[in-house]
Amino acid sequence: MPSPVITPDLVDLSLEAPDRQTATRQLAQRLATRGRITDLDGFLADVTAREQQMPTGIEGGIGIPHARSTFVTEASLAFARSKVGVDFGAADGPAHLIFLIAAPEGGGSQHMTILAALARRLVHASFREALAAAPDEQTVVDIVTKEVLGS
Amino acid sequence: MIVTLTANPSVDRTIEVAALRPGTVIRAGASRVDAGGKGVNVARALVAHGCKATAVLPSGGAEGAQLEALLADSGPDLVTVRVAGSIRANVTVVEADGTTTKLNEPGPRLSGAELDALAASLIEAAAPASWVVLCGSLSPGAPADWYAGLTRRLRGTGPRVAIDTSGPPLAMAIAAQPDLIKPNREELAELAGRPIDTIADVVGAALTLTASGVHTVLTSLGPAGAVLVRGDAAWHSTAAALEPRSTVGAGDAMLAGYLAAGAGGPGALAEAVAWGSAAAALPGSRMPGPGDITHAGIHITDLTTGNLAGFRL
Fold first, then answer.
1. A25: nearest Cα among A38, A1, A43, A4
2. Given an 8 Å threshold on Cβ–Cβ distance, is B143 in contact with A116?
């Protein structure tokens, strides 16, 4: 049975990072520690390439860096909350909620499905507020699992 | 009047060769140059049928001038936004056995100011329109939610919004609840997160999108026709088999046909499939005119009754 896409150790409730590269690296490090990616720098190069092609900061203080990469062993979603915010290129300001989607190369369509489901939920202020107010990592996992991953 | 946006247009050169062998010099046969880009194609198809259409696009460099010259002949009103970079040039190599190889440039990286100017021109051009069609890939550097943002800005201003793109821009645009999307089978499977093997799979996946606020999902299925889902109603349509010559632009013609026919139920779906199959029977990205289109052999099935649903694609 595949591992859950998000677990409490993939959640950082008080990320401190000066820029999107550092923020992404810190989240990716969590994936590397759990063996979900095999090469941290290789994976980050794939994310950076995507981010340069198409910035993923979206309206409402959100960043969704993502990549389908040969260095990913299983579909994963890491989440961070940043009090000061991190610039992800959105017109309306820095991201306070950051999701890192990592999908294995040839891993079917899970990557885009997660992205579509996230975008759909993030439109709702109630979803963003629930994530911003979550008291602990498990609460974030519960919210995302129920609302985004639909299980 | 219908307005199309082509965010990353191109000048498309199609070259015919006997056989493509890497690392050798090959004498090419016939070649042709077309204005490229989904929005450009949709506008050309509409104009060929006497519908009023305006194409909004960025233009720059020698390729931009060439693109504008090519479009001046084929009719849509143009709104161009000057950009510093050169519009991309794409090359398609067609071998004698029909094998097609495409070399697509990424296109110019637009600055924030250029993207804003393009958006402002679109919003202005869209004011009198019945539909705005946001088409194709984004230019490098454009944010993934750019189409989603445009959809939200256009909401309530009058025109309805149709989106034909893929990947993250499509995934994010869904959240902005556009009036219409036109995915193909692969794009629908990506959005749904499950394989699409039957007509029932198409309907099931499209229903999840209409349930989340997209009014109409028109899924193009190549030779298997198209499935239209509006609210909880669904129809499948196929065309009599024409000899397909180039599927490039067939989806664009299908979307144009659907909009030209009023973007409604089964009647508009039949028109969409007629235009799409006519485009597939024409070479390159040529758009069909009224003389190319036949309505004979167009078949419509109401899927609400469950007919055909198990039909394998």
1. A43
2. no
Q: Return the ∠ at Cα B93 (arms to B90 and B99), rounded to 5°.
A: 130
CA of A74 to nearest chain B CA: how many angstroms apart? 15
Tell the CATH superfamily of the B2-11+38-90+109-305 domain: Ribokinase (3.40.1190.20)
Catalytic residue among A66, A96, A111, A124: A66
Where exactly are the structural domains of chain B?
Answer: 2-11+38-90+109-305
Mutate to test the interface with B, among A92, A112, A147 (most CBs of B within 10 A): A112
Task: Confirm or reject contact between A120 and chain B (CB < 8 A).
Answer: yes
A96 classed as catalytic? no
pTM summary value: 0.91
Render pLDDT for A70-94 as a digit per residue (tens, 0 to 9). 999 999 999 999 999 999 988 788 9
Chain B residues in contact with A56 by the CB 8 A cut-off are: 143-144, 168
In chain A, the domains with their CATH numbers are: 8-147 (3.40.930.10)
8 Å CB contact of A66 and B191: no
Q: What is the DSSP letter of B247?
A: -
Chain segment B165-220, per-residue pLDDT in tens: 999 999 999 999 999 999 999 999 988 888 899 999 999 999 999 998 999 999 99
CB B221 within 8 A of CB B10: no
B196 touches chain A (CB under 8 A): no
Measure the CA–CA gap between A48 and B266, rounded to whole angstroms: 45
Residue type for position A94:
P
